Amino acid sequence: AQTVTQSQPEMSVQEAETVTLSCTYDTSESDYYLFWYKQPPSRQMILVIRQEAYKQQNATENRFSVNFQKAAKSFSLKISDSQLGDAAMYFCAYRRKETSGSRLTFGEGTQLTVNP
Amino acid sequence: DAGITQSPRHKVTETGTPVTLRCHQTENHRYMYWYRQDPGHGLRLIHYSYGVKDTDKGEVSDGYSVSRSKTEDFLLTLESATSSQTSVYFCAISDGARPTGELFFGEGSRLTVL
Lengths: 116, 114
Hints:
Oligomer: heterodimer
CATH architecture of chain B: Sandwich
CATH superfamily of chain A: Immunoglobulins
Distance between the termini of chain A: 41 Å
Number of domains of chain B: 1
CATH topology of chain A: Immunoglobulin-like
Helix content of chain B: under 10%
Order of helices and strands of chain B: EEEEEEEEEEE
Radius of gyration of chain B: 13 Å
CATH class of chain B: Mainly Beta
Strand content of chain B: over 45%
Number of strands of chain A: 12
CATH topology of chain B: Immunoglobulin-like
Strand content of chain A: over 45%
Order of helices and strands of chain A: EEEEEEEEEEEE
């Protein structure tokens, strides 16, 4: 079974600084999706960024980028120029690609605090 | 935003009572999921559906049942609620035809079992 691990239960960053959230996963599959979801206090689950395993290029969405290390099974999220609105719980998630209806497997989450 | 509505959004009930949570979607997506969120565990899959009347268990299915009689509705039932089922429940949907892979989530239902 696939597992996803986020080893940092809490992180903090100063406004305008950069922070990196860590995620590792375990799978025997060769092609899959990885995601970072953001959950603000509103509880809504918001997709931040997506990576397909067969793509070597790291995904980027504005201030958010990932460092995808397939061999190491590592998928970290970098937030640049942190803003107060980035404060949230962040979840790393894995999904098999072969089966279109396959489930998402989540990590435990990292609570990010942004200090003004 | 994906059209997903969960009801009720908040519920307080007593141990031993039945509870049904409803997920309604307007996207005509084939796949629907129920997750629960607990501190330190992230989101864990309870049950999922891959079509009308087609459902399967997730990793924490004990004490829960589901039904899907229409594409748009996916019901989660706790036959006899226990305090360990106090949690926030999320419904999610996905369209197997999309190449992007993500799930879209409802706003969550907070259930408290006293």
